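Both lines are quoted verbatim for reference:

——
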Amino acid sequence: AGDTLAAAICWQVALGSYLSVVLNLNPLLEYDGYYVMMDALQRPNLRQRSMQRLGAIVRRRSGLAASRFEVLFGLASLVYVAAMCVATVVFYRLLVEDVLAGPLPDGVAVGIGWALAAVNVVLAAIVVAGDLRGSSSRA
């Protein structure tokens, strides 16, 4: 594209497409990469079983020797969720504060940013706790 605006738009679309592919290949999210890994390892419901096994270990109903791979996958899933919660608190809160800083007083914008970030973290914690208990809290 000769036009600089059209070229910039094309680059942004291409970047978004590449990031979408990378996100879909992440085995810690229940997208394509997870299902490919689950099929390749022939372990159905890997995340659910891993989280249940990890929950049983935490409640001291099972030992680590049961399935090390499932325990490691469950730990990796927990670390990933925790990292995404930290990223949510940092980036999402700052984004909301920046958007609301113009029309609202600074204290209100900061409070709303923290509240929305806290809601996201609490919802993630509820889902993880349900997975660790073995009950599905997702629809």
Notes: The longest helix spans residues 68-101. The two ends are 45 Å apart (CA to CA). The chain has a mean pLDDT of 86.
